[in-house]
Automatic annotation (TrEMBL), chain A:
It is an enzyme of class 2 (transferase). This is propanoyl-CoA C-acyltransferase. It comes from the Bacteria. The keyword Transferase applies. Pfam families: Thiolase_C_1, Thiolase_N. The lineage of its organism: Bacteria, Bacillati, Bacillota, Bacilli, Bacillales.
Amino acid sequence: MQTYIHGVGMTQFGKLEDKTLKNLLLDASIEALEDAGKPDVDAVFVGNFMGGSIYNQEILGAIIANDLGLGYVPTAKIEGACASGGIAFRQALLGIMSGEYETVLVAGVEKMKHVSTVEVTEAINAAMDNDSNEKHAGLTFPGFFGVLANRYFYETGATKEHLAHVALKNRNNAINNPLSQFKTETSIEEIMSARMITEPLGLFDCSPTTDGASAVVLSKKKGDIAVRSSAQASGPTEMQNAENLLSIPAVGESGRIAYEKAGLGPEDIDVVEIHDCFSMTEIISSEELGFFNRGEGYLAVEQGKTLPNGEKPINTSGGLLSKGHPIGATGISQLYQIVHQLRGTAPNQVDGARIGLAQNLGGTGSYSTVHILERV
Amino acid sequence: MDAFRCNQCGYETLSEKYYCPKCRNSSFSRLDIEGKGEVYSFTTIHIAPPKFADKAPYQVVLVQLTERLRVTGYMDEDIDIGDSVSFKEIQEGAYIFQKSS
Ligand SMILES: [Zn+2]
């Protein structure tokens, strides 16, 4: 059965002191519903990670159904760390494919800027296996990708400057995206000399904390953006259990399944959103998804292949690094950007984009979803 | 230093698992390993969780202990990939390593 995206919505990303979690959730949902022509909705799925732990707010699905007058429809919140949004979208899709629903609203939201860095970091660390010696060793979420980056440098000859080029590209893309969190120009020099978070990753190599929401309306009724395939996979929850540290198997596996289901390959994809929680992650995942050979993703960055006018444009939205990363909203906001690319209305528009791919990662490789969309 | 090996496929793990992640077998043998290995990779953490804030910057290392076993540990010495290190002790659940002399 074919499903279609009928509408998308997204709030400003950034520090939004005057907006509550509910404001954000409803703003994005209303925009998506209006974009879809205000259809009846049979169910609501919400992607959210820390509404309970730092905002003391759950029942997000029921809040949408009530406040938007959707009736007594079933709703659920989906938690999958930073992949909460991608998984929520996939659950909506499966609900439609099962025959149970015709049209479903999916929203993602996070409010993170109202608490201290310490509190938000603690909440994010819930996305690691904390009943393990790794937490006791002082490993952090960014730390995992720092360890990965050092090994990647060692094996491939890549340097911190290659990571800086990822951060710079995504910043330049974000400058053209009115909804992005960071719009000030930067330079390789500024990125390279910024304060260290976890070596070799500095401030610009790490995605920020962000307030924001995004939403999509998905239906089996014919529309002009088709979901060609949906895939999800899991992977190791501890760094020491990674068979190959330079691989994120959940990304590779979700990509492989998504290509297989769609009958497409990496060469068919015109525009890509990759989960760049860290600059290093964008490079590794660009290899996992088959856009570049293993150990050569950094060369593609160096050669400008991932720029909006390159052969494989990655993160034309600005990515998590500069568009912002409101955790539960991120997976849906990637789809927002891909839909606009396929409609021809995106910031950093890729000429004639017809097929797009969005990859959403949770934890340090615990979850990954891949969705392939096509303009029909 | 203790580790465990799956009796069916040879998968090695630091703590005994309910099931082997590779083959789902549930019987493991205890290994007594020397605790000497090489730094496979590492990071120096500057922005640390509250409990570690007064230790920062410190190193989190991934140590290759046997052909099939890597362990995440803590160090407070400057190190590089390939350096020889040895297990010192377990402190509050953390595996502490030091440079081999
Ligand atoms: Zn086994």
